[in-house]
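Example record

The entry below shows one chain as it appears in the dataset: sequence first, then structure tokens.
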Amino acid sequence: MKDEKKEQEDAKNALVDLLIKEEGVLFVGSGNSSSLGYLGVEGLSDELKRLPTPKDIHFLPEDSLSDIAEKVRINANDEKDYFNLLRKTYAPIGKKHPSQFHTLLVGLGFRAIVTTNYDLVLESSFQSQTEADGSRSSYNCIPVDLCKNSEDGIQFLRDLANGKIKDRVLHIHGFYDNPENIILTTSDYECAYKPETQHSPQLHCRTTLSNYPLVFVGFGMEEAIAGFLRLVQENFNLGSTKSHFGIFSSKLKSQKTEFEKAGIDPIFYTVDEDNEERHAGFKDLLSELQKAKDEKLRQLPKTSKTFSIELTEKITVKENVKTERTQNPQKIADDLLNF
């Protein structure tokens, strides 16, 4: 039996190396905004069920959020009620921005940030960042809505091939101020990801992102993370060899094999059910990763090329996975712009 503690330390060290190289793309999923007052899966499901409809809708116990949204949108008295609910639910009004969790997360130094969420939480977390040398920087970070303007989204993917992006966050399933095009219902997902959908920006995005090591973060409700994992497995072809990372609650350790099958090397943080701040372990883990990264950077001579070469060979795109990408990200992005 493998040593679980050593596995976790190895995964952390590999992730730190990835952060130093600024190669990892942060992929933020469900549950990450719940701590700031945004509705999670269960809360939004309940609100959708309360929308007025001309007849009673029969909801099944096994209905997912997408199933519920599908039934409500089709049967609502006025489709505008559905759109207004989404806009109101994910607008920043009355919410607490940013949180220490999110500020630590975006400050780790990812190549870029992509999210399936519809809110502004990640953008607001960029407003005040501490650089490695202790100086403060303020970034005017803006949302890029892939569902509203695919050209902006494709430009984001093009820029991703050229280096680090810290002035934009890509919302691949839409943004709260454009609720008419948000991807939420079952039909929305089918339309966005079915293979025969021509020129779908989500499919183009998937193609490009699959060429980078991704770092998935699922914070909060375990049910939401399980749904997020299904989304990733069904719609993102990550391969079966661990070349990506995930930061998840220790309550999801039972799904470790499933993560690994999806090509994700999971790193778990401890959840303290007796603590009012039950996910404090998440913050501790982020601080630990930042500290380890800073320490490695301090040991790195500024003009050293040797370390860079060694790190390229060692970076945890494990063994021969993605050491030579089968597709060139720059070429993919150029091809998309010519569509």
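Notes for this example: The beta strands are 25-28, 112-115, 129-130, 136-137, 142-145, 168-171, 214-217, 244-249, 264-269. The radius of gyration is 20 Å.
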